[in-house]
């Protein structure tokens, strides 16, 4: 069985360029094989439909009439019709994080969580039924074009995004390196258009530096390589902490849209004692699960502050919430995004995929943050002038975090 991860990502758009607003389930990628013949599957479907008084003849009537009467026969593709039918069925669940993936789309999403893809480098999510920028990635085409967290995407190449699914938005915005995409955005009351040239995006999960005798660790996502990158950075921090070369640590989760849930649990263990609850996963089928700290972390006693903003989502909120609930860290910045559901990523036959919202997750104190986010202990806003990007010199949130951790 392939590795089936349940993430808490937020569609990496470009899927991060998901990043999806998802939360991939910890576990193993399930390969689903259909041993039944097509005839038996249709028969089973028809039997269930009959039991529920559904006339399946309508489906085949529409299918046949489309093939028979549509004016441009070159656009009739039976494979696309088949995938489209499945997409429509899954979309009927009316959940932006539950969607079907064609084999090509499934491959692209896996590449994204592996830290490499082509697009504009911005994480997308859904808010109040609208496509929204969770965060542009550092040094990405999106960031260079001036796109910011919280910008609503109204149009893509003049196509209105109203009614789009999250993955539909991702698939329209991403594209080959060197090609351009025009986005109409809404920021506050201001509507404006930007043209972004796509590029290859490589995402390092962890960036470590030192500021004024403080370790500053920027965590960009919870992806395939995060734990390994994290371990290397933590070893360096631990070494300096033991030698008293640093006085504390800042964990920056701003603009981090999430990723694999198991990674959030692994990272939380660096700061929390074994046996502590990190997150509780509650599902409708009584298949609930509680994730505990199961290892001895290396940074149990280092003073810690955590930076969050409206681009911090999903797995970022799980980690932040656990540290908050056990009073292990002070939270600085802005309220987080508010993504509290868990998606299971399933590999289907012929390499297609299915992401299904299977559960909600709650923090150790029982808090479900879906739609409301996590409030910081100390609220600090960064004032970024139009057309500029945030610099360390103008980062008031980081400045405050350093001040607090050194107290």
Short description:
The protein is of the alpha+beta class and 407 residues long. It has ten helices and 21 strands. The chain has a six-stranded mixed beta sheet, sandwiched between helices. Strands 3, 15, 16, 19 and 20 form a five-stranded antiparallel beta sheet that branches. The chain has a four-stranded antiparallel beta sheet with strand order 8-7-9-10, covered by helices on one side.
How would you describe what is shown here?
The chain has 407 residues and is an alpha+beta fold. It contains ten helices and 21 strands. The strands form six sheets. A six-stranded mixed beta sheet has the order 12-13-14-17-18-21, with helices on both faces. The protein is 27% helix and 29% strand. Among the domains are: 38-96, no CATH class; 203-340 and 360-405, 2-enoyl-CoA Hydratase, Chain A, domain 1, CATH 3.90.226.10.
């Amino acid at each position: 069985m392939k590795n089936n991860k349940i993430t808490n990502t937020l569609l990496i758009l470009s899927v991060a360029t998901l990043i999806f607003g998802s939360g991939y389930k910890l576990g193993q990628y399930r390969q689903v094989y259909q041993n039944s013949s097509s005839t038996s599957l249709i028969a089973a479907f028809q039997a269930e439909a009959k039991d529920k008084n559904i006339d399946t003849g309508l489906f085949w009537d529409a299918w046949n009439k489309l093939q028979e009467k549509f004016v441009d026969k070159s656009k009739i593709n039976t494979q696309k019709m088949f995938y489209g039918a499945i997409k429509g069925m899954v979309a009927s669940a009316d959940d932006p994080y539950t969607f079907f993936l064609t084999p090509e789309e499934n491959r692209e999403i896996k590449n994204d969580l592996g830290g490499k893809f082509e697009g504009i480098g911005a994480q997308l999510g859904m808010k109040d039924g609208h496509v929204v920028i969770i965060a542009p990635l550092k040094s990405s085409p999106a960031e260079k074009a001036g796109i910011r967290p919280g910008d609503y995407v109204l149009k893509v190449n003049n196509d209105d995004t109203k009614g789009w699914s999250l993955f539909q938005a991702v698939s329209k915005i991403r594209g080959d390196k060197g090609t351009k995409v025009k986005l109409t955005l809404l920021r506050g009351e201001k509507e404006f258009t930007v043209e972004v040239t796509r590029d290859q995006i490589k995402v390092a999960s962890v960036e470590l530096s030192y500021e004024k005798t403080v370790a500053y660790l920027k965590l960009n996502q919870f992806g395939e390589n995060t734990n390994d990158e994290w371990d290397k950075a933590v070893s360096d921090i631990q070494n300096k902490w033991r030698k008293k070369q640093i006085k504390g640590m800042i964990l920056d989760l701003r603009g981090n849209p999430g990723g694999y849930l198991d990674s959030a649990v692994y990272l939380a263990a660096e700061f929390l004692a074994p046996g502590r609850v990190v997150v509780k996963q509650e599902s409708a089928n009584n298949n609930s699960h509680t994730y505990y700290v199961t290892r001895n972390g290396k940074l149990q006693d280092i003073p810690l502050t955590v930076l969050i903003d409206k681009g911090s989502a999903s797995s970022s909120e799980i980690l932040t919430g656990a540290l908050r609930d056990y009073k292990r860290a002070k939270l600085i910045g802005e309220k987080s995004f508010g993504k509290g559901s868990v998606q299971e990523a399933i590999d289907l036959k012929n390499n297609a995929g299915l992401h299904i919202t299977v559960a909600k997750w709650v923090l150790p104190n029982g808090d479900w943050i879906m739609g409301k986010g996590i409030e910081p202990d100390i609220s600090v806003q960064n004032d970024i002038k139009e057309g500029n990007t945030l610099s360390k010199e103008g980062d008031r949130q980081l400045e405050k975090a350093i001040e607090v951790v050194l107290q």
